[in-house]
């Protein structure tokens, strides 16, 4: 090619590179991202651009119109009804900072999917995508014995979860044969799952600890709930310690609850919240000690047990971060030979219990 031909083509090359640079400047700075949004929370779907005037912005999910902006105003006449009143742009940052991010309020399970952010200005147009994942984490886990099916089972349950989690069962000590639980995962009207997993009880008052593990699909949550049975006996009128020890040491932000059930009545005994360092007592003839609690020992001491009033099942429940421990203790208070059965104890009787009062643990007798 001759020199004069190269000189003639040079302006066209410069024009081509200038047009390419200008068009590139309109691209979103985040071309494709994944965002995890909490169920019922507000969530921001990011998209940015280089302001150049005459901005036209369209947010879509597949064929659904989510939000549009042009002529310096929101244009929502074609917005799909499921997004009505739930979308907004950051207009104070739109023209100055080029922030076309979408605020999506009160996230629903149905909001998951791929969203397109389309932007055009005087300098050109481009499109980026945001993949939205929705999650509703496990917030509580329950484990209990039940006989609703006609035989004894251990049931592990939780609700309000998305997506449906994995559930595993095991025992301590471990069994040689594999466990065969029955698990149901049922969505409600909002798309959140209730999980119900049942395992046939091995035998009465065995040394086995039943453990239910619930794991989120992304591995961020790993809940465990443990259930144990035990039985003890003691003579009437003598102090009796009902053990409840958690393997976790140096507990923080935990709650301990003691309750009682017999054929005649059921009642709460006491509860302790480590965050406020307070105990709420319903029974004045039962106590725990502060030093033991903080090291994972929530043993309950019955000060003056009576045969009729204090024979029954005592339940200890520890709740700490993603961990639940439940221990049922069958307690038999025996009456010495030749001594008549004691009347219902004033402290233990449900109708005669004094109103619960909040006491600092350091006031408790140790």
What is the strand and helix layout of this fold?
Layout: H1 3-24, E1 32-38, E2 43-45, E3 56-61, E4 64-70, E5 73-74, E6 87-89, H2 91-97, E7 102-104, E8 113-121, E9 124-135, E10 142-146, E11 153-161, E12 166-172, E13 182-187, E14 193-200, E15 209-215, E16 222-235, E17 240-242, E18 255-261, E19 266-273, E20 278-281, E21 286-287, H3 290-294, E22 300-302, H4 307-310, E23 312-320, E24 323-334, E25 357-360
Parallel strand pairs: 1-9, 16-24
Antiparallel strand pairs: 2-7, 3-4, 3-8, 4-5, 6-7, 8-9, 10-11, 11-14, 12-15, 13-14, 15-16, 17-22, 18-19, 18-23, 19-20, 20-25, 21-22, 23-24
Instruction: Give the CA-CA distance, first to last residue.
Output: 101 Å
Structural class: mainly beta
Q: Could you estimate the helical fraction of the residues in percent?
A: 10-25%
How many runs of DSSP E, i.e. beta strands?
Answer: 25
Compute the number of helices: 4
- Biggest β-sheet: strands ordered side by side in the sheet: 12-15-16-24-23-18-19-20-25
Please trace the helix and strand order, writing H or E for each element. Answer: HEEEEEEHEEEEEEEEEEEEEEEHEHEEE
Strand content bin: 35-45%
Could you name the ranges where pLDDT drops below 50 across 5 or more consecutive residues? 10-30, 344-366
Radius of gyration (CA) equals: 32 Å
For the sheet with most strands, the description reads: 9 strands, mixed
- What global shape is seen? elongated
The chain-level mean pLDDT equals 84
Describe the structure.
This protein has about 375 residues and is mainly beta. About 10% of the residues lie in helices and about 45% in strands. The chain contains 4 helices and 25 strands. It has helices at about 5-25, 90-95, 290-295, 305-310; strands at about 30-40, 45, 55-60, 65-70, 75, 85-90, 100-105, 115-120, 125-135, 140-145, 155-160, 165-170, 180-185, 195-200, 210-215, 220-235, 240, 255-260, 265-275, 280, 285, 300, 310-320, 325-335, 355-360. The strands form 5 sheets. A 9-stranded mixed beta sheet has the order 12-15-16-24-23-18-19-20-25. Strands 1-9-8-3-4-5 form a 6-stranded mixed beta sheet. A hairpin with a 2-residue loop joins strand 4 (about 65-70) and strand 5. The protein starts with a helix and ends in a 6-residue tail after the last strand. The model is unreliable at about 10-30 and about 345-365 (pLDDT under 50).
